Amino acid sequence: VQLQASGGGLVQAGGSLRLSCTASGSIFSLYDMSWYRQAPGTERELVAHITSGGNKNYAEAVKGRFTLSRDNAKNTVYLQMDSLKPEDTAVYYCSAKSIGPITYWGQGTEVTVSS
To answer: CB 115: neighbour CB atoms within 10 A?
Structure first.
């Protein structure tokens, strides 16, 4: 599975961005998809997760502000980020995992939120 993340950028606090992650090379609908983020000097943390069946969960820090969705016809998962805060600044990575031990990672897209 190859993952291509896009949509990052520079935005003011309170603004919005939509990240996209497009997969190729396998049957997208079978994969659980996640977004993680990593700020400088911190460990990578889970932001949001959606199962192959469409069940979602979010980190407490983003609940009510971020919305995760997937379009299996387009092999793409989206992370709509609203009411962005400076503490959301990080490199965002998408990942894919199906049955088995391997987790696939995209290359990351940088999000910077200015105050």
So the answer is: 9
